[in-house]
């Protein structure tokens, strides 16, 4: 069986590594690459959307990064247990009209025994910012 290291149960070191790996993957803005961290039947709640399965994840991410230009993300470990990790994050992006945003949020992740994320629940808020106030570049 394929594994996505590190695998549960998590400790501080492996949970921190898992968060950094997620940040690095999302910053590629490559839906195919990002989707491979999730189970085939992954369940997501992203804002007001409910997404089921790796194929829907790819479609969602493709649309996201077509809208959210110059996307840059920073994640931080918040808490962890055996197979669960909570993160806080912020990311910056602009729309096609040039308006910049900083999006803040929290995610709760649950992993299977092979280290693939089977559940991702995200709550996110957007704040309009001026380009000069960007922190993530």
From TrEMBL:
SUPFAM superfamilies: NTF2-like (SSF54427). It holds the Pfam family DUF1348. Gene3D superfamilies: 3.10.450.50. It comes from the Bacteria. This is Nuclear transport factor 2 family protein. It comes from Pedobacter punctiformis.
């Amino acid at each position: 069986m394929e594994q996505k290291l590190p695998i549960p149960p998590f400790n501080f070191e492996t949970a921190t590594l898992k968060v950094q790996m997620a940040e690095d993957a999302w910053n590629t803005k490559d839906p195919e690459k990002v989707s491979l961290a999730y189970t085939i039947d992954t369940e997501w709640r992203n804002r007001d959307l409910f997404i089921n399965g790796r194929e829907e994840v790819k479609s969602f991410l493709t649309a996201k990064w077509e809208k959210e230009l110059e996307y840059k993300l920073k994640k931080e470990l918040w808490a962890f247990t055996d197979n669960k990790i909570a993160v806080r994050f912020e990311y910056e992006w602009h729309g096609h009209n040039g308006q910049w945003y900083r999006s803040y949020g929290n995610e709760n992740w649950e992993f299977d025994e092979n280290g693939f994320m089977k559940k991702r629940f995200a709550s996110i808020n957007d704040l309009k910012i001026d380009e000069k106030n960007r922190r993530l570049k």
